[in-house]
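Slide 14.
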Amino acid sequence: MRDNRIKIAIVIILSIALIAVLLFLLRGCRQEKMVAGGDITSATSITDLKTPLAVAVDADGKIYVSNTGARKVSVYDSNGDPLYDIDSGQDDQGEPYQYYSPYGLAIDNQNNKLYIADYMLRVVDKEGNFLYNIVPPPEAITVDESQSAIRPNQVALNAERVYVTSRDGIYIFDAASGQYIEHWGTRGPAVGQYDFPNGIAIDKDTGNIFVVDVNNWRVVSLTEDGRVRWTIGGEGNGEAKSPFRLPRSVAVGPDGLVYITDAPDRIVVLDQDGNLVGIIGERGTEQTQINFPEGIFITDDNRLLFADRENNRVQVWQLTDDLSEPGIAEVQKFADATKHYWFKTSTD
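Slide 15: predicted structure.
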C-alpha cells in the first residue's frame, strides 16, 4: 500500500514538473512572437516573388514590391492581390528602357510620384509612366571611379528633399525638381563616413534620419541637417564591434520606433535615442519566420511589411499598439547573440 502511495506521489511530481516545463516552453515561444509595439495579431504573405528587396505602401493602401529577381516592380492591392507590374518605360527622349535590378522604393503621395532605385534613380508616376531621372553631377561623386552616376540603393523623402544612399554616402536632391543639392559623407569607417549605406528612413515628426551603414555594421541617426546624433555598432572609436549581424534596412513606425532588418533572421527595434526596445526573429519558412529580411515599411495603422528575401515573399504583420519595455537582460541578450558589445556613440 505504501509503495503504491510512493508511486502515485512520484507520478504527480513528474506530471507537475512536465507541466512546468511545457508552460516554460510555451512562454518562450510566445516571447519569440513578441514585437516592440505589441503582438502580431495577424500575419499574411505576398508570395510568388523572385528575390524581393524592398516594399512601400501608398496612401490608397496599394503595395509596391521591388521584385528584383524578376527585374520589375510588382504592385498589389491592400489585400495582396496582384494589380500590375512596372518593368519598362520610355524616357523623355522617346528611348525605351527596361528595369535591370530595381531596389529601393519611395512614394510621394501628394505629387503621385514613385521613386525606383535601379542603375539610376528613376521617377515615375504610380502607374509607372516616366517623369524624369535623378543623377548627381560628376563633381559630386566622392569615390575614385570614372563614372558620372551613382548606383542608388534606397530612398527616403520629406516635403522638400529626396535622400538617396549610395556606396559613398547620402546624396540629396530637391523634391520638386530633382536637382542635386549636396552630399553627406565620404567612404570609410569613421563616424561621419559610410561604407555602402543601404536603408534610410525619416521620422516625419522629429525630422530625425536613420541610416543603415551596411559594411560598417552600424545604424546611424542624423539630424535634418546631417549632423550625427548617435551611432550603434561598427568600428566607432576603434574600441568596439557591432551588435548587429548584418543590418539591411530601416523604417520608422507611427509611434516613432525604429525598426531595423538584421539578416539573417530578425528585426531589431530601437527608440529615437538608440535604446533597444525589442527583437523578433526566428529563422525558417513558416509564417512569421524570417530568412534574410531586406526592405521594411510600416503604415500609419501599424502594419509592418518587409521583404523576406530568401523566402521569396513579402510578409505583412498587423501589430497591436501596446508597447513592451525591455530590461537589462534583453539588452545583454542582444549583445551576447552577436558575440560583441552593445556600443553607442553620441555626438550631441
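Speaker note: Helices lie at 2-33, 328-337.
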